[in-house]
Write a structure and sequence with these properties.
Layout: H1 2-8, H2 15-42, H3 46-57, H4 60-67, H5 72-92, H6 95-111, H7 115-138, H8 141-162, H9 179-191, H10 205-225, H11 227-248, H12 255-263, H13 267-282, H14 286-296, H15 298-312
Length: about 325
């Protein structure tokens, strides 16, 4: 779908301008969607209204994806639209939101195969947060929504397998049975919060521990936000877990750069869950909380500026012409 969108915005005639326009649109839409969700889930307190939009605007993983012409920018916008529509349907029970969520959910695995991971996480989160009885009685249409959303991606994978265009599943011995990609993702998530040195070993036990701490904070945030917080937590956990499995089966990449690239899609829910954890711990001291968050904001701001300057120094490589 990404090449089709590039062609629609004029990439054939002006590739550089078309890519810039498409990615700018995706980033602005994603920023607006997650800022709106933050206001709805965290409340209208001045602390969150002031901090959340800036944290999203200074998202380094979003900037990286937008720079390197990766499909994640479009994938991010579709995922944002999906979460906004699903949250709105569960909140207001208006069928138009479920239709929009179904359209976005159908496009997710067609844009990137890992969209299937997000849909599986949504199903698990809905069952965990609302329970089978409530989903069956009050939200029976959600089952049809998930089935229709999965049809496109599953159908595409079956066609690829039948056409023998797929690659064989072979265990990747250097993945250390999942510890290596899990260590990479743990490092990436922790580096979103605090500055960390790049690990020198393939598997860093310190960063695996940091990943466990991050998971505890995300669980605390889900408890504070409410039932949709558990849905977002299941999305994040399922998405990263299946990427770890994909790397072990040699069907996906890990490493620090690809870890940042893949995890960047769930930057929004991770930040909202972390802010939910912060609100649970320090919610009774809003003034001190605003000061501390303002000081912490200097880190993502410095990182975003540094990476932005670095990325703008990379020249645009012109396509080679055949002689």
């Amino acid at each position: 779908m990404y090449p089709v969108l590039l062609a629609a915005v004029g990439a054939v005639r002006e590739p550089a301008a078309a890519v810039a326009a498409l990615h700018a649109l995706c980033l602005l839409g994603s920023w607006g969607g997650w800022a709106w969700l933050g206001r709805k889930m965290l409340g209208a307190d001045a602390t969150w209204k002031s901090v959340v939009p800036w944290v999203l605007a200074l998202s380094t993983p979003w900037l990286l994806a937008a720079k390197f012409i990766w499909a994640e920018s479009v994938f991010l916008l579709i995922f944002t639209a999906y979460v906004v529509a699903l949250y709105s349907y569960l909140t207001h029970q208006q069928h138009r939101w479920l239709v929009l969520a179904t359209v976005a959910g159908f496009l997710l695995p067609l844009q990137r195969t890992s969209g299937l991971f997000l849909l599986l996480g949504t199903a698990a989160g809905l069952l965990a947060a609302y329970g089978w009885q409530e989903v069956r009685q009050r939200h029976a249409l959600l089952a049809w929504h998930l089935l229709i959303s999965l049809v496109g991606g599953v159908g595409w994978q079956l066609w690829v397998a039948r056409s023998q265009q797929d690659e064989p599943l072979v265990l990747y011995s250097q993945a250390a049975w999942g510890l290596q990609p899990l260590s990479d993702f743990s490092f990436v998530l922790a580096r979103w919060v605090v500055p960390l040195p790049v690990p020198t070993a393939a598997v860093s036990w310190a960063y695996l521990l940091a990943g466990a701490v991050m998971l505890c904070l995300l669980v605390l945030g889900a408890c504070n936000i409410g039932r949709f917080g558990w849905v977002m937590l299941a999305m994040v956990a399922t998405y990263i877990s299946w990427h770890v499995v994909a790397h072990v089966m040699s069907r996906g990449a890990a490493g620090l750069h690809d870890g940042e690239r893949y995890a960047g899609v769930v930057f929004g829910p991770v930040m909202l869950l972390l802010f939910g954890a912060v609100r649970a711990v320090a919610g009774r001291h809003p003034r001190w909380l605003l000061v501390l968050l303002g000081l912490w904001l200097t880190y993502p701001a410095a990182r975003a500026v540094r990476n932005s300057i670095f990325l703008h120094q990379i020249p645009i490589i012109a396509s080679a012409t055949s002689k």
